[in-house]
Amino acid sequence: MTPPDTDSAVSRPRVEGDRELEILHAALDVLADAGYDRLTMDAVATAAKASKATLYRRWSTKQALVVDAVCSQKAAAPVPDTGNLRDDLIEMYTGLGGMRDPRGLAVLAAVVTAMSRDEEFAETYRCDFIAPKIAASRVIFDRARERGEVADGVDIPLLAGALPGIVLHRVFLLGEEATPELIEHVIDQIIIPATTCPHLPTASE
């Protein structure tokens, strides 16, 4: 679908502030209720009580609108720096407990599905949403290595992705809740012990 190409659409002011948030929240509602495939600019415009031209003045594509909507759910938080790895990870990831919210789960499920079907959306989502989170996680583990909490040879990129991966597996495949207790248990039983393991050769090596 291509955006309207009219002089009036270009000359009017861009959507911002509270009105922008209203549209983003409407987009999340449509995403949760209908899924990514059936989300259209028309559907979001109807839910937000706005014109389609209004949406296109701010978002040129459906992909851009959905990514902004997902990113709007939580403001970017500063990278924790408590002085030890365990507390940094707990502070950073206990927010995953929000996945107990049915609407939040529906949105996340729609996003995962969309990434497998829409490469343009997947690339935008990885760049705008996932990449900053990976960078923040790397900062935490790099600081821990400098403090001597992470052994030389530990694969930090692999280890940094293990915590959210395990939690998401238990939520989506096992039907558990992402409680703070679950997150702390994964940190204490898997992540922290793994930081002290030196590099081990793989079967191919």
From TrEMBL:
It comes from Nocardioides currus. Residues 17-77 form the HTH tetR-type domain. Residues 40-59 bind DNA. This is TetR family transcriptional regulator. The keyword Transcription applies. PANTHER family: HTH-TYPE TRANSCRIPTIONAL REGULATOR RUTR, TETR-FAMILY TRANSCRIPTIONAL REGULATOR. Keywords: DNA-binding, Transcription, Transcription regulation. One of its GO terms (molecular function) is DNA-binding transcription factor activity. The keyword DNA-binding applies.
